[in-house]
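Feature request, filed as a ticket because there's no other form

It would be nice if the structure record came with a short human-readable summary line next to the tokens. Right now we just get the raw output. Example of a typical job, pasted below so the devs can see what we mean:
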Amino acid sequence: MTYEIHQILLASDAVEGDFEFPAHITREDRVEAKHRVANVKKEIEQLIGEDLRSDNGVQNATFWEQMGVYERKVQRGGATALLAQMAIVFSNFGNLVTVWSVDPESLNRYPLEDIVNILEGHGFVYIPRSSLDAEYDGRHATRVKITWLDRFFSYI
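Raw output as currently delivered:
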């Protein structure tokens, strides 16, 4: 992780609130963010020529929206799993966003640099997925042993 990325993560972690949500987020903030995400979705779908599936009913998590391209796979016993080929995750904190895949090689099919430019053009702060594997050393570090991925982009 670069020094700059670490400083962004630390600043996003320093805001008042609980582990799941910053205290200062208002209903208006969330409506505005949802509008930006809808615009991002349209632009990325146009860019990649595929529909993005949205999961905007996230609860008990440090993120509020995930959208992406998923492959449906039947597991043993007949259960169906949706495997992210490319997913974009929007944190509850600092307009942070990351892009990931269950198979990082599948990300090569997508123009990541162009996707990041779209995200940043709408005010989101892109954090490379690889940077998030570092051990979390923010303000809650004495209470939990987690990674930065857990802190900003995971279910609690």
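Something like this underneath would help us a lot:
The longest helix spans residues 27-48.
Residues 3-153 form one domain.
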